[in-house]
C-alpha cells in the first residue's frame, strides 16, 4: 500500500506524461491517502509516518522546483524562503517519532535525509556528515546502486 501511495506522489512530483511537469493534484491526493492511512491504522506504523513525512518534505518545496520557464531548479538553487515551513515542521515531528520507535525503514530514512536539507538555513550549511551517516543506515535497509551513488555524492 505504501508503495502505491508513493508511486502516485512521484507521478505528481515529476510527471512522466502530459503537458505539465508537476501534477500537484496527484501529489496532494497521495498526501491525503497517507494521512488517512496513518489515521486509520490501529497503532502508529513508523514507515507510514516516514512516507508521509517524505512526501510532505518534497511537497513543501513545490513552488520553487520550477523556474518561470518551466525548467527544474536544483535544490541548492531553490529559494528556501518560499518553502512551506509548516509542512517541514510537521514532517520533522513525524520523522522524530518514527526514528524513536526503532522500527523504521527506507521511507523514514529517506525522509530524514530530506529533512536535513529542508531544515538547513542554506545549501552551504547542510550537515553532510549527518546525511552520509543516514545513507549508511539506508544502505543497510536498501542496498541498491542508486542509494550507494547518492551516498557517494554526499
Shape: globular
Order of helices and strands: HHHHHHH
Low-confidence stretches: none
Portion in strands: under 5%
Radius of gyration: 15 Å
What summary fits the major beta sheet? none
Which range best describes the helical content: under 10%, 10-25%, 25-40%, 40-55%, 55-70% or over 70%?
55-70%
| SS content category | mainly alpha
Brief summary:
With 154 residues, this protein is an all-alpha fold. 63% of the residues lie in helices and 0% in strands. The mean pLDDT is 95.
If you had to describe this structure to a student in words, what would you say it looks like?
The structure is a single chain. The chain is mostly helical. The chain has a domain at 2-108. The protein is built from 7 helices and no strands. Helix 3 packs antiparallel against helix 4 (85-101). The radius of gyration is 15 Å and the shape is globular.
Question: How are the SSEs placed, and which strands pair?
Answer:
Elements: H1 2-13, H2 24-40, H3 46-59, H4 85-101, H5 106-119, H6 128-141, H7 145-153
Name a few traits of the molecule.
154 residues; mainly alpha
Amino acid at each position: 500500500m505504501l508503495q502505491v501511495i508513493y508511486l502516485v506522489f512521484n507521478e505528481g512530483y515529476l510527471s512522466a506524461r502530459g503537458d505539465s511537469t508537476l501534477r500537484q493534484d496527484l501529489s496532494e491526493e497521495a498526501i491525503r491517502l497517507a494521512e488517512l492511512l496513518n489515521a486509520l491504522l490501529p497503532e502508529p506504523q513508523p514507515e507510514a509516518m516516514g512516507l508521509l513525512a517524505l512526501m510532505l518534505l518534497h511537497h513543501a518545496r513545490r513552488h520553487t522546483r520550477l523556474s518561470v520557464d518551466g525548467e527544474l531548479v536544483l535544490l541548492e538553487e531553490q529559494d528556501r524562503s518560499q518553502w512551506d515551513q509548516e509542512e517541514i515542521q510537521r514532517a520533522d515531528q513525524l520523522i522524530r517519532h518514527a526514528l524513536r520507535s526503532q522500527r523504521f525503514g527506507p521511507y523514514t530514512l529517506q525522509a530524514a535525509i530530506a529533512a536535513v536539507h529542508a531544515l538547513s538555513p542554506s545549501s552551504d550549511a547542510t550537515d553532510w556528515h549527518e546525511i552520509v551517516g543516514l545513507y549508511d543506515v539506508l544502505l543497510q535497509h536498501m542496498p541498491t546502486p542508486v542509494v550507494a551513488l547518492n551516498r557517494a555524492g554526499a
